[in-house]
Specification:
By secondary structure, the protein is α+β, with helices and mostly antiparallel strands. The protein is built from 15 helices and 19 strands. It has a 6-stranded mixed sheet with strand order 15-14-13-12-11-19, with helices on both faces. It is elongated and about 135 Å long.
């Protein structure tokens, strides 16, 4: 009989002919045993022989049982042609755990990799085989079709001892060209459609989110907004046509207000797929028009005065200019580092949501007495404060600064910097009050203070960034 037992739907197939043969063999064995017992039992040494035979049978049965337990599951020495049984593993465990437990229990790193391959059948399979040879697990894959070839973007998990150069070398041997790789983290595990939808939602709720959404969509890049007044009509058309322009590592998009948004990423060319996604976000922003969250936060100063902290935009331009008129020349000079007469010219830029976020401090009578700006300066972020003289040294500057830093942390900024004069002790004290690592640079009386945000666990849930208006009262200490 063959060692291979056929099965149907995962269960052995039983045959009635085999059952009849086994029953006939059992009856024959009983008849033979009865005949032998009668023959031996009537002899002179019959009882002793029967006892010895019984002992031998028991010993034989015991040996057979031991042999079956120790050798019944040994792998066959030859190939029978049957499919080996599937490995049994607990639910929730990975296939790699059943094959190579040391690869899972050891330290791993996450890589983001891009490579260009020929648009031919089998090229992706060759890449996957090369990565498997390095014990690299593919977590996600996106394809970016090109005119010639395809850009494959991978999110990989690899053993810590496997260097990025080893991965790129294996990919190159498998046919990948122009390979780029960098370390990633757990935040990159979100799939592309979910990330794009989240960025679109943020852009829809707040116009100031567009530069941040583009940066998070496209990775490390430099984003600049050029107002419509900075370029002539002809130059604007040439720099950014209605449908946008893509030039290798630079894309230009028509800003909703008529200016130009340029995105540069020198280390990695943009693909048409990325260009289409970025253009869709800009078009969504243009269709929704100017908007900022209209909620506010009511605070009570230690002196008993009630103030309101809220988001501000270009509609507050008149009130901001009125605050400038009430500020002393020294206060304006400490803030703008230039001629006091030019201070009003900066407000159009500062209050535009295209260049960052602005918080305004408003009194019960409706006057603006303080402004705090979080400005997107290319791939860096600047913080700037201005508090009217009469309202200084009441904790308003520290309150604004803390909220702006919380907003920068939520926007995934790595650091923020403030430019002031070395004699501005109030700004220096406020920055030191953040309890963050600070770097100082002084040049010709100008002080640049940079706060690194990667060391802070700040996760703000600011009421003025929520959908509804909340009011709360607390004391703001000096």
């Amino acid at each position: 009989m063959s060692d291979v037992t056929r099965a149907k739907h995962g269960r052995p197939v039983h045959h009635w002919r085999r059952d009849l043969v086994e029953l006939a063999a059992l009856l024959t064995a009983v008849a033979v045993a009865d005949a032998v017992a009668n023959l031996i039992g009537h002899g002179p040494d019959g009882p002793a022989l029967l006892v010895i035979s019984a002992v031998l049978l028991v010993a034989t049965a015991g040996f057979r049982t031991w042999w079956a337990r120790h050798h019944g599951h040994a792998p066959p020495t030859g190939d029978t042609g049957a499919r080996p049984p599937a490995a049994v593993r607990e639910a929730g465990t990975s296939e790699a755990a059943s094959v190579a437990p040391e690869a899972v229990t050891g330290e791993t790193v996450i890589w983001r990799m891009r490579t260009t391959v020929r648009d031919e059948p089998g090229t992706l399979a060759a890449l996957c085989t090369a990565l498997a040879g390095q014990r690299v697990d593919i977590l996600s894959l996106q394809t970016h079709p090109l005119a010639e070839g395809t850009v494959d973007e991978f999110l990989l998990r690899a053993p810590a001892e496997v260097a990025g150069s080893e991965v790129t070398r294996a990919v190159a041997q498998a046919g990948g060209t122009g390979t780029w790789i960098e370390r990633a983290d757990a935040h990159d595990l979100v799939d592309a459609p979910t990330r794009v939808l989240g960025l679109a939602t943020r852009t829809a709720l707040d116009a100031a989110e567009l530069p941040l959404a583009l940066r998070q969509l496209l990775g490390r890049c430099t984003i600049r907004s050029i107002p419509a007044g900075s370029v002539g009509a002809g130059r604007a058309e040439e720099a950014a046509p209605v449908e946008g322009a893509l030039e290798d590592t630079v894309m230009r998009l028509r800003a909703p207000e008529g200016g130009v948004i340029t995105v540069e990423r020198p280390y990695l060319p943009f693909t048409p797929t990325e260009f289409a996604r970025a253009r869709a976000l800009v078009e969504l922003d243009a269709r929704l028009g100017p908007r900022i969250p209209r909620s506010k936060d009511v605070l009570t100063l230690s002196q008993g005065n009630a103030i309101t902290v809220r988001r501000a935009d270009a509609s507050d331009l008149k009130a901001a200019k009125a605050m400038h008129e009430r500020c002393s020349p020294r206060t304006l000079s400490m803030r703008y580092h230039g001629p006091v007469g030019d201070a009003d010219k900066y407000l159009h830029h500062l209050l535009s949501p295209r260049f960052g976020r602005t918080l305004a401090v408003q009194t019960a009578s409706g006057r603006i007495v303080g402004l705090g700006h979080l400005l997107w300066d290319g791939d860096e972020t600047e913080i700037a404060l201005l508090v009217e003289d009469e309202w200084q040294r009441r904790g308003i500057g520290s309150e604004l600064l803390g909220r702006l830093v919380s907003m920068a942390v939520e926007a995934a900024c790595e650091s923020v910097y403030a430019v002031t004069q070395s004699s501005n002790t109030g700004m220096v004290a406020a920055m030191r009050g953040l309890d963050l690592p600070l770097d100082y640079q002084i040049e010709e009386g100008t002080l640049v203070i940079t706060a690194r945000l990667d060391a802070t666990p700040v996760k703000s849930q600011l009421p003025y960034d929520e959908a509804q208006t909340h009011q709360r009262e607390h004391s703001v200490r000096d």
